[in-house]
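It is worth pausing here to work through a concrete case rather than discussing structure prediction in the abstract. The textbook approach is simple: state the sequence, then state the predicted structure, then interpret. We follow exactly that order.
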Amino acid sequence: MVKVTVSLDAELAVEVMVLAGVGSPQDAVEPAVRDHMARGHRTEARAAARDDALREVDGKPRDVEG
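Step two, the predicted structure:
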C-alpha cells in the first residue's frame, strides 16, 4: 500500500489521538479517516434506499378525484 504524509494542526492531531485512544498521531489518523469514509458509505446507502422507496411511491398512478 502506498503511504501518504499529511500535515495536521497539533490540536487536531491530539484530539484525534484522544478519540482513537492511541498515543501516536500516525496511528490515530488512519482509523479516523476510515471511520469517516465508512459513515459516508452508510449514509449513501441509506439515502439510496430512501430514494428507491420514494420512486416506488411516486411511480404509482394517482386516483383522480372529481
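Step three, interpretation. The mean pLDDT is 79. The helical segments are 10-20, 25-59.
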